[in-house]
Write a structure and sequence with these properties.
five-stranded parallel β-sheet, 5 strands, 15% strand
C-alpha cells in the first residue's frame, strides 16, 4: 500500500516544526484566544478537540458553524482573537475568504494568525486567501496537529513563557 503524499507546503511546515521542537504546542497556544469555523459539525468538533489537545487548559477556544455565528462571536469579543482557523466552505454561499474580510472590518486585528482550509486548494484560492490576509491555506487532508503546530512555529515568535532555555 502506498503512503499518502503530502504537499510541499506541509512538508516545509513540518520541517520548521522539527527545527523548533524544543517548544511544546501549548507554549504557543497558552492563553491564546482561538476561533474555529466550519459548517461541518464533525470537522468542527475534530479541529476543536485537536486544538484543545495542543493548547491545554489555558486555550480560550470558540467555535462557529456558520458565517453569521462567526461574525456574532467576533463582534461579541470585539474581534479579540489571536488565531482563527476556518473552512472555506461555510454554507449559505459564504466562504472563509469572505468571512475573514468581514471579521477584519469587525475588529479582528491584522496581526491575528489566520489559516484557511478547503477540500481542494487551487492557485486562485490560495491567491485570494493570501490577499484576504490568511497566512496559510491548506488542503483539508493536511490539517492536523503537526501542520498547525508548524504554522504556529513559523508565524509566531518563540513563546516568552516557555520554561526551556
Amino acid at each position: 500500500m502506498t503512503a499518502a503524499k503530502r504537499s510541499k507546503a506541509v512538508d516545509d511546515l513540518i520541517q520548521g516544526a522539527l527545527r523548533a521542537a524544543r517548544y511544546d504546542p501549548s507554549d504557543y497556544l497558552e492563553g491564546m484566544r482561538v476561533l474555529v469555523v466550519d459548517a461541518d459539525a464533525d470537522g468542527l468538533d475534530w479541529l476543536a478537540e485537536t486544538l484543545r489537545g495542543m493548547g491545554g487548559d489555558d486555550l480560550e477556544l470558540s467555535t462557529a458553524r456558520s458565517f453569521n455565528a462567526a461574525m456574532d462571536i467576533c463582534r461579541s469579543q470585539n474581534g479579540g482573537f489571536e488565531f482563527v482557523v476556518m473552512s472555506n466552505k461555510l454554507g449559505g454561499g459564504h466562504t472563509g475568504v469572505e468571512l475573514l474580510t468581514q471579521m477584519r472590518s469587525a475588529g479582528l486585528p491584522e496581526a491575528a494568525l489566520a489559516i484557511l482550509y478547503a477540500k481542494s486548494v487551487s492557485r486562485p484560492l490560495r491567491e485570494q486567501a493570501r490577499a484576504a490576509g490568511f497566512c496559510e491555506t491548506l488542503a483539508a487532508d493536511d490539517v492536523n496537529s503537526g501542520s498547525l503546530y508548524a504554522i504556529l512555529v513559523q508565524h509566531c515568535e518563540a513563546p516568552p513563557h516557555s520554561t526551556l532555555d
